[in-house]
């Protein structure tokens, strides 16, 4: 099917296919680049968040480890000696030593924490919080202690007992260690992480809210809503669109605190150069398409339309329409080609017309030659009729035959003018009919042509061949009386003379064959008279002029001679 398309359509389709292919390849490449970069962003964000989580977990682990090991310190064991009951000074001295060790630990630790030691048996408390008096209350440890870090009052707390099996009944333990650290340690680490990694990390808990860095923006509230609406696992990430901006949110759950370390990055900020490059490419494609449309339009106007005109012109030439002429206003190679085409068509038309006219002249000469030779049978019949009438002393019949025969041959042998008026043609036909009426007493005729038609002209000897055929083929074969009717009518544009006989008529096939012969080249098997009449009328007055056959109302054949009003009027 592609091979049947014209050249312009093929070029257009190939150009469109090329643009579509380039657009598809670039779009696929762009998507792959974006996918790879998004994957790298997600991995990078998760790696940074993992490093931050490990750092926080390391500090919390150190605090937890110290809380477990502090109960094994010898000073703690000595502080609980029963014999110090009677020696308060020694217990106070050991307590001071314990507090000094705890402060030394705080000094060496990255985080400053508050360590509080509860001695249920002694009902005493030792704490690094110098600014608060912490009394021992029995009801505080009447319930089981949490085995994980708890968040309360802007700080995290963690408890351990000695022995460790006493977590469910802390009031019966020898020692309860409480380690707490304020939230600002986590905020400081979040600030440091944000400064180093250009992210915006924070901590999130589904029930307790969030802990943000000190320079957090309002986007955290929207991220928090997304986190609450998402089923979170231990570690993962997801994309969220907020205010037409796409973010990637990664999270890791803290094994010790139970909170989630969360960080998010705006994807568009990182993908901005790629997006700008993509938009620039699409804009370039749009400009290229617009320019392509202009170029294709110019090609269509400058090449395709002239080619179509040439194709149509050659097609009309091939069908025999040599009057075709091409009109082209632009001045380029096609204007020269059109001019040469017009010259070629004009010369072909002139050649065809000359050949056709020459053929008509040859046929006209043939007809005149036939007319000049005089039909021997017709002439012999007329002369025998005169001889018989002379023997019968019928002077009137002899005179009538001689006068009509003389007028008839005088008219048909005249060659100085190819055109004749209808009046002259009818006079000649009347002479011919009178001759035939004298020979065939059973033949009658009627001529009814309006007077305003008599001055119109048509080619000489147009009516005589039609009337002759009506007599020879229609009236003579019958033994009954025959009648020939000649009528005429006209309009502003065309004139028509009808010759109708009451003869034996023709079948539909015979009439169709006779009509077809009028448009074929003349050969030996065809009659020359009616064919020549039709060809002369068509040549002089156009294709719509000529002869037409139909069945007559009296059983014979009705022949209509039609022609346009000529220029001689």
UniProtKB/TrEMBL annotation:
Q: Using the record's annotation, list all stretches that form the HAMP domain.
A: 301-353
Membrane topology term: Multi-pass membrane protein
Any single GO molecular-function term of the entry would be: kinase activity
* Family annotation (CDD domains): HAMP
Q: Which UniProt keywords apply?
A: Cell membrane, Kinase, Membrane, Phosphoprotein, Transferase, Transmembrane, Transmembrane helix
Pfam families, A to Z: HAMP, HATPase_c, His_kinase
Q: Where in the cell is it found?
A: Cell membrane
Question: Is Phosphoprotein among the key words of this record?
Answer: yes
UniProt key word Transmembrane: yes
InterPro entries named in the record: Bact_2-comp_sensor_kinase, HAMP_dom, HATPase_C_sf, HATPase_dom, Sig_transdc_His_kin_internal
Stored PANTHER family: SENSOR HISTIDINE KINASE YPDA
* Protein name as it appears in the record: Sensor histidine kinase YesM
Source organism of this protein record: Paenibacillus silvae
Q: What is the lineage of its organism?
A: Bacteria, Bacillati, Bacillota, Bacilli, Bacillales
| Name of the gene | yesM
